């Protein structure tokens, strides 16, 4: 029996390797749609989707919107500005209102860890987590997996090191779970003050020095360094961060082999990653963006009840839900 | 004419006089008159004796909760002194100490007098005010301990907020010594705990929630144990939650430092795993810790390193808890589940016996906070709890007497429940069944 995803996509921690493989495999046929002149199939015609973004986001929101539109769904974008504690409507009221409008799916981005689950527990619509606080960002994790698989032909046995602020990174968590479940080896590298204290319990290898990480890894997933980490006293300066942990061409050239470079964006050029690396021959940063649309189409398709084996025919314009 | 009540045929457990036997307890007016096997025979032909059949039940000195939040004044929609005092007696508590983090803060004699008056009107559990350590609990200037004690305060505390200044804590310990009251200490190093929503550990790393490390509690615990050593003041450490704290308390007690400590039922029963799925009813401060901490706290209750069990009853409005985990307020209600949680996790599991539980819930609180009660000796106030130590029940928060519904035990099957509670010789609570 083919595995299903259930009602929601909240994180990769709860998915099995089989379910993750299902999403990645389903994304393959959807990649091609984005290459067409007319990038649209009628697969999700009539489905109403709310993109509920409580945090500013360009890349993820646009990626979801393209995925939805290319599947012919009817998306509505809601940007709720301000933090969750501001005096606006509570999340539970937002949930109830959405439920009352009988929408089919909600894509939620929220600054609080657990916000996507909070919503999913309270509404019958499918909920897709587009990033909740410092918890998970599953579609980003999936698109990273897809990009890695494209390049290595497999995920099993490859070595991926996540470099940077793992403590505050939802991308890091989704990567750790996704990669581990697919049989990859995962390392993390960053200042100890930006790694969770209990990092060892997450089943990853820890590198204090980025040179060691480069020595070990087949691919680096370089995380964005948020400016507020300095003011909050986690690290002294961007300059020192770049000197100690920055992924530079010089460091990469000392490695024995070519190392694939991923970055979830947006990049701070000259901080966590140097421009000649970001724009260099081993960077797959833009492929990640392209894959993001395909992976999100796959997730939307599967959650709406689409049959994985029919994704190929859905691509041709038919497809059953 | 005097009023008499006969509690007949129960298992009378009074650790204050090493008593554990089937007996009758005779109460005349507001005092314990007699305990014995033949009391019933001697009184049965007297007129006007109300008899309460206690066969199969435990009769013990009334429980005393030295730590609860009754929210009045300021948050009467969440709890009032009246609803809190009724919740208390429904849980078998005959006395409760009301923490001063009200609005306005209970930091002066008039505010203390208000709590006393509302407690009297509530006419359920005895309500003892705890005054603030600092004016407005702002951590700057000492509140007027002397006047507050004269008005009826039994301790001082800035509970809910740590006393960040070591100097202020030092002077509070010295000044409180003048009036013979404990300083009840909320141990939390504020810069370490800042922004934390749960225990720092594997679960917080997985859930992406900012953690509060055990050290945030332990650093303050040892600071204030050392200040108690310096000053000779009585430091009472509230809601201890870590193995490290237990070791530090033991260190202090071994050296004869005047330190006492309490633990809450949730910290001897639940772990950080209860936060899984972002359950805001498992969010409290200090947070639920690890299984190792729970085990250490359980044995500390047994060996006396932890003197007593207190609830930290902290009602919240239901919609305050129904939100994003990081933004939800800390705290759970505890008055109506404490006995059952303690029996389920400490007694039924064989860690302590019932007499020791009663010691930790009644005798020790009375001793440590110098409160009346905690004994069934002849002539003592007739504050008595009658409970069924065997009965199992499913926690249904909608049936709480408290206005608060925020409990992680909803739906849990627990063992043990109060059947009848007497305060000053009056029956203030009787279970329906």
Q: What can you see in these coordinates?
A:
The complex is a heterodimer of chains A (321) and B (433). Chain A is an alpha/beta fold. Helix content of chain A is 39%, strand content 14%. Chain A contains 13 helices and 9 strands. Chain A has helices spanning 17-33, 59-70, 91-100, 115-120, 138-152, 170-181, 210-216, 228-231, 238-245, 249-253, 275-278, 285-303, 311-315, and strands at 48-53, 74-79, 105-110, 126-132, 159-163, 185-189, 205-207, 219-222, 260-262. Chain A has a 5-stranded parallel β-sheet. In chain A, strands 2-1-3-4 form a 4-stranded parallel β-sheet. In chain A, helix 4 (115-120) links the parallel strand 3 and strand 4 (126-132). The longest helix of chain A has 19 residues, at 285-303. The longest helix of chain B has 18 residues, at 214-231. In chain B, strands 1, 2, 3, 4, 5, 16, 17 and 18 form an 8-stranded mixed β-sheet that branches. With 433 residues, chain B is an alpha/beta fold. In chain B, helix 2 (81-90) crosses helix 3 (109-122) and helix 5 (166-179) packs across helix 8.
Q: Roughly what is the average pLDDT of chain A, rounded to an integer?
A: 92
Q: Return the structural class of chain A.
A: alpha/beta
Strand content of chain B: 15-25%
Q: Helicity level of chain A, as a percent range?
A: 25-40%
For the biggest sheet of chain A, the summary is: 5 strands, parallel
Tell me the strand percentage band of chain A. Answer: 5-15%
- Give the integer mean of the pLDDT values of chain B: 97
Q: Which strand order spans the largest sheet of chain A, edge to edge or round the barrel?
A: 7-6-5-8-9
- Residue runs with pLDDT of under 50 for 5 or more positions of chain B: none
Q: How many helices of chain B does DSSP assign?
A: 13
What is the SS-derived class of chain B? alpha/beta
- What is the approximate shape of chain A? globular
């Amino acid at each position: 029996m083919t595995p299903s995803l259930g009602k929601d996509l909240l994180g990769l921690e709860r998915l099995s390797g089989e379910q993750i493989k299902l999403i990645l495999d389903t994304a393959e046929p959807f990649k091609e749609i984005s290459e067409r002149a007319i990038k649209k199939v009628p697969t999700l015609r009539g489905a109403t989707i709310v993109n509920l973004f409580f945090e500013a986001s360009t890349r993820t929101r646009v990626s979801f919107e393209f995925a939805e539109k290319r599947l012919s769904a009817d998306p509505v974008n809601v940007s709720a500005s301000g933090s969750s504690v501001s005096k606006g409507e509570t999340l539970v009221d937002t949930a109830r209102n959405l439920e009352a409008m009988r929408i089919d799916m909600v894509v939620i981005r929220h600054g609080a860890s657990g916000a996507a689950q909070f919503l999913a527990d309270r509404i019958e619509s499918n909920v897709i987590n587009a990033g909740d606080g410092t918890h998970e960002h599953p579609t980003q994790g999936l698109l990273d997996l897809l990009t890695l698989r494209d390049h290595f032909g497999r995920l099993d046995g490859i070595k991926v090191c996540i470099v940077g602020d793992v403590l505050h990174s939802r991308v890091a968590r989704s990567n750790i779970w996704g990669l581990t479940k697919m049989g990859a080896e995962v390392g993390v590298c960053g200042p100890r003050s930006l790694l969770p204290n209990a990092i060892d319990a997450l089943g990853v290898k820890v590198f204090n020095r980025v040179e060691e990480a480069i020595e070990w890894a087949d691919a680096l997933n370089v995380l964005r360094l948020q400016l507020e980490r300095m003011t909050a006293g986690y690290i002294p300066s961007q300059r020192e961060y770049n000197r100690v942990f920055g992924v530079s061409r010089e460091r990469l050239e000392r490695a024995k082999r070519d190392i694939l470079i991923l970055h979830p964006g947006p990049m701070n050029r000259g901080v966590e990653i140097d421009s000649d690396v970001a724009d260099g021959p081993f960077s797959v940063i833009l492929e990640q963006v392209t894959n993001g649309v395909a992976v999100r189409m796959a997730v939307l398709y599967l959650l709406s009840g689409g049959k994985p084996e029919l994704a190929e025919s859905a691509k041709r314009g038919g497809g059953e839900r | 004419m005097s009023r008499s009540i006969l509690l007949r045929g129960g298992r009378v457990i009074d650790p204050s006089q090493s008593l554990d036997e089937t007996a009758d307890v005779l109460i005349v007016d507001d005092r314990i008159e007699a305990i014995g096997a033949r009391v019933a025979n001697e009184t049965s032909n007297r007129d006007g004796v109300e008899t309460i059949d206690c066969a199969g039940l435990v009769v013990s000195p009334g429980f005393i909760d030295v730590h609860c939040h009754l929210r009045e004044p300021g948050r009467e929609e969440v709890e009032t002194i009246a609803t809190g005092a009724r919740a208390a007696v429904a849980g078998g508590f005959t006395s409760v100490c009301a923490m001063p983090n009200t609005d306005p803060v209970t930091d002066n004699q008039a505010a203390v007098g208000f709590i006393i008056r509302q407690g009297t009107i509530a006419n359920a559990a005895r309500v003892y005010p705890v005054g603030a350590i600092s004016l407005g609990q702002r951590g700057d200037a000492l509140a007027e301990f002397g006047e507050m004690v004269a008005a009826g305060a039994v301790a001082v505390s800035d509970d809910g907020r740590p006393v960040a200044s070591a100097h202020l804590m030092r002077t509070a310990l010295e000044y409180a010594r003048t009036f013979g009251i404990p300083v009840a200490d909320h141990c939390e190093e504020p810069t370490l705990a800042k922004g934390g929503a749960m225990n720092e550990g594997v679960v917080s790393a997985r859930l992406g929630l900012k953690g509060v490390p055990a050290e945030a509690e332990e650093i303050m615990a040892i600071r204030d144990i050392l200040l108690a050593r310096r000053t000779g003041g009585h430091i009472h450490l509230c809601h201890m939650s870590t193995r490290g704290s237990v070791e530090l308390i033991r260190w202090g007690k071994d050296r004869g430092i005047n330190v006492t400590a309490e633990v809450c039922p949730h910290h001897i029963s639940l772990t950080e795993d209860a936060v899984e799925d972002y359950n805001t009813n498992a969010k409290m401060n200090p947070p639920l810790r690890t299984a190792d901490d729970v085990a250490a706290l359980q044995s500390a209750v047994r060996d006396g390193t932890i003197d007593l069990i207190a609830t930290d009853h902290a009602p919240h409005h239901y919609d305050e808890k129904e939100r994003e985990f990081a933004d939800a307020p800390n705290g759970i209600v505890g008055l109506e589940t404490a006995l059952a949680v303690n029996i389920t996790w400490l007694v039924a599991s064989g860690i302590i016996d019932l007499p020791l539980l009663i010691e930790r819930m009644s005798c020790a609180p009375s001793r440590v906070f110098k409160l009346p009660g905690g004994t069934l000796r002849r002539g003592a106030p007739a504050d008595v709890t009658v409970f069924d130590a065997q009965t199992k029940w499913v926690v249904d928060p909608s049936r709480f007497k408290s206005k608060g519904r925020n409990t992680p035990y909803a739906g849990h099957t627990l063992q043990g429940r109060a059947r009848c509670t007497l305060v000053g010789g009056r029956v203030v609570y009787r279970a329906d069944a």
